[in-house]
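Quick one, T. Sequence first:
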Amino acid sequence: MVVVLLVAGCGAVDKRKAIKNCDFEIRAARVEDKRIRSATIAVDLDVYNPNHDEVIVDDLEYCVWSEDRCFMRGRVVTPVTIPPYEKRPMVVKADVSYFSTAAALKRLVLLQPTRYQMTGTVYLRTIFGRIPFKVRSKVHRFP
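Structure tokens:
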């Protein structure tokens, strides 16, 4: 019985470990809500799975960079399943302070050309605990 659980657990780990081969692409970034001291920013990601097996993203901690400065951090804990050779959208959102991210927000609100990149860590939930894998998108220019 223990051997069966371990083998099943290894299969689940392989589906999650394959995330390190996936391509993360920033499709769009936008301001969703403006307040006096902060705004809610949404970044649309496309995640492509080049693997033979489906990939499951359980838990993603991310940082979105603008012109070499991290202006938004957050976490996605809703699992996303990506079938083999397919692309799935993910939306990451965070509230950001105008004071700490003034330059990035100004470029986003005024639609000025800007370089964006997402870096993060995907944590794989296993029967042995959480296993971290680093992920990174290509650098993208908007608009």
